[in-house]
Amino acid sequence: MPKIGQIREYTLFLFFFLPRSGFVQQAVAADLLTLEAYWRVVESRTSKVFRDCEQAAASR
C-alpha cells in the first residue's frame, strides 16, 4: 500500500514531466487527489482493524 508521501512525490513527478497543458494537469491533479483521499480512508480503516484485533487479543 503506497504511503501518502509517495503519492505526493508521484504527483510532483507527473507535473514536472507532463506537457504544460493546464487541462491535463488539472485532470491528473483531480485523479491523484481522489487517489490520495482513497488511500487515507484505506489506511485509517486498516489501522482501526489492527487496533481492534490487538485489543481483542489483549482482553483474552
Structural class: mainly alpha
Distance between the termini: 30 Å
The proportion of residues in beta strands is under 5%
The largest sheet, given as strand count, sense and whether it forms a barrel, is:
none
Short structural description:
It is built from two helices and no strands. The protein has helices spanning 4-17, 22-59.
Mind explaining what this structure looks like?
With 60 residues, this protein is mostly helical. It has one domain. Helix content is 87%, strand content 0%. It is built from two helices and no strands. Helix 1 runs antiparallel to helix 2 (22-59). The longest helix is centred in the C-terminal third of the chain and has 38 residues, at 22-59. The protein is rod-shaped and about 60 Å long. The mean pLDDT is 75.
Task: Please give the structural blueprint.
Blueprint: H1 4-17, H2 22-59
Helix pairs in contact: 1-2
